Amino acid sequence: GQQLNQSPQSMFIQEGEDVSMNCTSSSIFNTWLWYKQDPGEGPVLLIALYKAGELTSNGRLTAQFGITRKDSFLNISASIPSDVGIYFCAVISGTYKYIFGTGTRLKVLA
Amino acid sequence: NAGVTQTPKFQVLKTGQSMTLQCAQDMNHEYMSWYRQDPGMGLRLIHYSVGAGITDQGEVPNGYNVSRSTTEDFPLRLLSAAPSQTSVYFCASKREQGRYNSPLHFGNGTRLTVT
Question: Which chain A residues are Cβ-neighbours of B43 within 8 angstroms?
Fold first, then answer.
C-alpha cells in the first residue's frame, strides 16, 4: 500500500532548541496534515496544508507543503517540555482514506 | 462538548473471545473510522463509514466487522480475538465540508490485549 516515510523516527533535544522533521511519499497528494499525539491520548491536528508550496504557522509551529506535492516538513521553534510526544504526518488518499506516517517521537530535555 | 468517546479504555481478552469496541460522536459528523496503532507502524485504517448504512474497508480489515446504524455510533466488532489484534484502537470522525477536507477528530483510544 501507499506509505509515508517520516524522519527522524525519534529525537532528543534540549529545551529551547529548534526541531525539524519531514515526511515524504512516492505519490502525489493534495492535502498534507500534521498531528501530535500526547501519551495516552488520541492524535490532535496541528496544521493542515491544502496548496503546494504553502507555508503555514501555528504559534511556534511552521509547516510547508512541498512544491512537488510529495513531501512536507514541520518545524518547531524554541522547544519546551510540553512539546514531547509523537508527531504524525498524514495525507488524504482519494476522498475518505487517511494515510499516516510512522511518527517522529520527540523528547525534550529540560 | 464530548467530541469522540471510546469505551472501554482498556480490555483484556482471551484468544477466541468476541467483543465490541464502542465509539460515539456528538458532532453530527458524517464520516467515522477506526484505526489501530502498533509500535513503529503508525496508524492503520481498519474500516470507515461515510454515513449511516454505509461502510467500507480500509487497509487492515481482516478480523474486524463494523456497522453504522446511526450517525452517532460506529462500533467495531472482533468476532474471534487473536493475539495479533493486541493494539491500541482509535476511533475518528470528521465533517464533510465543501472544497477542503475537514480534519479528523480522534477519541482517546482503547488499549486491547489478547492473551
Answer: 43, 88, 100
Cβ separation of A100 and B103 shorter than 8 Å? no
**What are the backbone angles phi and psi of residue B55, rounded to the nearest 5°?**
-135, 160
The per-residue pLDDT for range A55-110, each reduced to its tens digit, is 999 999 999 999 999 999 999 999 999 999 999 999 988 777 889 999 999 998 87
The Cα B34–Cα B31 span in angstroms is 11
Contact A42 B106 (CB under 8 A): yes
For the segment A10-59, what is each residue's pLDDT rounded down to a tens digit? Answer: 999 999 999 999 999 999 999 999 999 998 899 999 999 999 999 999 99
CB-based contact, A51 to chain B, within 8 Å: no
Task: Give first-to-last CA distance, chain A, whole Å.
Answer: 39
